[in-house]
From TrEMBL:
Residues 84-412 form the Peptidase S53 domain. The keyword Signal applies. Residues 1-31 form the signal peptide. It comes from Streptomyces kaniharaensis. This is Peptidase S8. The keyword Nucleotide-binding does not apply. Keywords: Signal. InterPro entries: Peptidase_S8/S53_dom_sf, Sedolisin_dom, Tripeptidyl-peptidase_I. One of its GO terms (molecular function) is tripeptidyl-peptidase activity.
Length: 412
């Protein structure tokens, strides 16, 4: 699909039919005020952590891009034409096959409830010609952290994260089943219980697009929630530039950084740099964990403990992705943040195939370093050693070993 430039004009749209199901809306009561990040006006839709063990999603909603509104026209093609990268763009950028994920279940872990999740997902998939994924056909399933249907309180901010997560899974692995596990709250205890529930439900691929400051108890959380051999678990590295976050610092998961992804005239047709700048403050997270042990497959010498990240994918809101959201949104929106990159990488693992039963799949990219697009320019802050916050040839903190170039790096 042709890349659609992120528009900030106020083009008029003809009135069309409105999809009736799932159009209840709510103002994002927990969202932060609009700020400018690298030229893009964005809103962090989830509340920043204020207490110990409280976490926040990393979704950044563009507020300066005019999109077709669900209230003004038919949100499905040919009229919608939403801004932001769509499935064909993402699969082209990362050399991924169409129609991947058959027979696999990908879980996304989020806090609170999005009552419109299934209805919004249907619009996204219809817009981009993806097969239907519904409760009725067995493709989509939403459960609470205990495995039932006593869903938590709805939250407009986390609903944006949920829409982003299920849409990115759809984009990369359109034939996979989607399991949405909603935690009672945004604490590590509840989100961790949701991770364990996803494993209990049989999911082999689990995305966590949230995090917060490191804590001395992280090593305990590692073993309680993330030590699941045979399951590919991903976590976003953060959106505040250089600095270690958790659970991205867990030794058992694949830590996912973020890039700026643009079309160019190269043989690949795309180019990537680190999302961020030397100023720090905003951009992909990276760093050296203060508490978590270094996994055996990491061999960089500038950090004696866990280094963040392992791999990366698009996260810059300036080169963001199209998402459809009606609870806390008015339809099509552009999202960025490392909340984009985590479900992308979890879905790449799913398309690549089932992990070895006793494996920690975070090690797979380290066994196939030549099968990734190496990101060699950009930074997310100032630090020492420099590679922890600056791109270079080979491994670096902001983008790890690089971004997907096909599936090889995500297989045993």
């Amino acid at each position: 699909m042709r890349r659609r430039r992120l528009r900030s004009t106020t083009a008029a749209f003809a009135v069309g039919a409105v999809v009736a199901a799932g159009l209840a809306t709510a103002a994002p009561a927990h969202a932060s005020a609009t700020t400018t990040r690298d030229g893009a006006a964005v809103k962090q839709v989830c509340t920043k952590p204020t207490t110990r063990h409280q976490l926040a999603c990393y979704a950044l909603m563009r507020t300066d891009v005019t999109q077709p509104s669900v209230f003004s026209l038919n949100p499905v093609s040919p009229n919608a034409n939403p801004s932001g990268y769509g499935p064909n763009d993402l699969r082209s950028a990362y050399n991924l096959p169409a129609g991947g994920g058959a027979g696999q279940t990908i879980a996304v872990i989020d806090a609170f409830d999005d009552p419109n999740a299934e209805a919004d997902l249907a619009v996204y998939r219809a817009q981009f010609g993806l097969p239907a994924c519904t409760t009725a056909n067995g493709c989509f399933r939403k459960i609470d952290q205990n495995g039932g249907t006593s869903y938590p309180t709805p939250d407009a901010g986390w609903a944006g994260e949920i829409s982003l997560d299920v849409d990115m899974v759809s984009a990369i692995a359109p034939n996979a089943h989607i399991l949405l596990v909603e935690a009672n709250s945004a604490t590590m205890e509840d989100l961790g219980a949701a991770v364990n529930q996803a494993v209990a439900q049989g999911a082999k691929y689990i995305s966590n697009s949230y995090g917060g400051p490191e804590d001395p108890s992280d090593s305990t959380s590692d073993n309680l929630y993330f030590n699941h051999p045979g399951v590919a678990i991903t976590a976003s590295s953060g959106d505040s530039g250089y600095g270690a976050q958790y659970p991205a610092g867990s030794q058992y998961i694949t830590s996912v950084g973020g890039t700026t992804l643009t079309r160019n005239s190269s043989a690949r047709g795309w180019g990537e740099t680190v999302w961020g700048s030397f100023i720090g403050v905003s951009g992909t997270g990276s760093g050296c964990s203060a508490y978590d042990a270094k996994p055996s497959w990491q061999t960089d010498t500038g950090c004696s403990k866990r280094t963040i990240a392992d791999v990366a994918a698009v996260a810059d809101p300036n080169t963001g992705v199209a998402v459809y959201q009606t609870y806390g949104g008015n339809g099509w929106v552009v999202y960025g943040g490392t909340s984009v990159s985590s479900p992308i990488i979890a879905s790449v693992y799913a398309v690549a195939g089932t992990p070895g039963a006793g494996d920690y799949p975070a090690k797979y990219p380290y066994q196939h370093t030549g099968a990734l697009y190496d990101v060699t320019s950009g930074a997310d802050g100032l630090c020492w050693p420099f590679y922890l916050c600056m791109a270079r040839s080979g491994y670096d903190g902001p983008t790890g070993l690089g971004t997907p170039n096909g599936l090889t790096a995500f297989r045993s």
